Amino acid sequence: xxxxxxxxxxxxxxxxxxxxxxxxxxxxxxxxxxxxxxxxxxxxxxxxxxxxxxxxxxxxxxxxxxxxxxxxxxxxxxxxxxxxxxxxxxxxxxxxxxxxxxxxxxxxxxxxxxxxxxxxxxxxxxxxxxxxxxxxxxxxxxxxxxxxxxxxxxxxxxxxxxxxxxxxxxxxxxxxxxxxxx
Amino acid sequence: xxxxxxxxxxxxxxxxxxxxxxxxxxxxxxxxxxxxxxxxxxxxxxxxxxxxxxxxxxxxxxxxxxxxxxxxxxxxxxxxxxxxxxxxxxxxxxxxxxxxxxxxxxxxxxxxxxxxxxxxxxxxxxxxxxxxxxxxxxxxxxxxxxxxxxxxxxxxxxxxxxxxxxxxxxxxxxxxxxxxxxxxxxxxxxxxxxxxxxxxxxxxxxxxxxxxxxxxxxxxxxxxxxxxxxxxxxxxxxxxxxxxxxxxxxxxxxxxxxxxxxxxxxxxxxxxxxxxxxxxxxxxxxxxxxxxxxxxxxxxxxxxxxxxxxxxxxxxxxxxxxxxxxxxxxxxxxxxxxxxxxxxxxxxxx
Lengths: 182, 350
Fold this sequence. Notes:
Chain A is mainly α. Chain A is built from nine helices and no strands. Chain B is mainly alpha-helical. Chain B folds into three domains: 3-38, no CATH class; 77-240, no CATH class; 243-350, no CATH class. Chain B has helices at 3-12, 25-38, 53-93, 103-116, 120-142, 149-177, 179-203, 209-239, 243-279, 286-300, 303-314, 318-348.
């Protein structure tokens, strides 16, 4: 039913440039897209910008194309746009921002004289982010979707356009590799 | 760290800002403000959206016409495009002549028609029709003064001869397998060959000397085919007299007789002109007199034979009557050749 509703909303956007219908689609996907973006970008502001860029690009595509396949899969469309935007982001930065950002965050915390427990937490997080970055991109994504966004295997498989078994295998290998670091 | 411990460790960080833990609706409202401004909304306010029955009907109608029927229409269009284009190409090729890009398409289509035909009678009629097309091409070529005319004329004439040969073969086959059908077919072929000779006569003056021999060969082929058709009709009439064959023979006989009488009268007239020209000359080549005498002999000495042929025909001796006309035709043709040579020699002073 959710899927049909989404298709009809898309239909209204495409045929009538219905802004409120697009707003509804935004509400449906804003959270997961933000988390998706934030887990790949160094700051919340970068994730905000990427979200805005992704939804605006989706609006442009939907309202200017005529019956393109992506219109029928809004989720697929926004993730496609978001991935390209993230790739473009790093192509421009050419900088391992995630590690630097965490290092800076740790320094800030230390400067702010936070409790030893918090500093330890930041250190753990810094380590985790560094190890996640060592995984293959798809393995990292599966880990994020499974453990940080609590998605079922079926949902992950649908998102990545792979079968469930492939997702299980990918996750198993990612965990195995992470265990060698931790 | 065990797998379970690792999973627990990972989940413990799910709300870390680095993994989107700082998400809040307020933050995303600010993002929406940016989006709404970029897409040109007057207000960034998002109101509840409810779907009505009309939305569902509109959606499924659109789905029906654009998603489900579209592939069908595309497939249908593709089929129409393929066959439509072929038909258009074939139609366009009908006016092509040897040397044109589409000419092979024309020949291929004809070949396909021959291949698909189921009887010798059909094939003979098709070959006769295609022979007519070759002559139409000949006419088109000779009236266009296009480059490479000689080669094109030769190609058209060769094509005509091939088709005529095929007509003869098919006619012979039909005669052996179905004599009853052969007569009707021979009548059609006979009419066609008459048309062919008339068509060739139209083109003949325009062809170059290099092609004269080719065109003469085409005339001979048409005449031979006509003779074979006539022979078939006569044979059919002899074995199984039918009103249709008798009528056809009458028409053929009258046409040939008329043609011979016309040619004889024309030859006599041309000889009279030659006599007049030579009479005005003080010195005349002595060989002219003998040649004129031969020509007059061939042109004039047919009254008896023509009478015999008419009597034979009237008594039902069709074969004999046509044989007599054929002998007269040979003599008249010989006379015409002599007269033509005389005219040339007198004109050029040879």
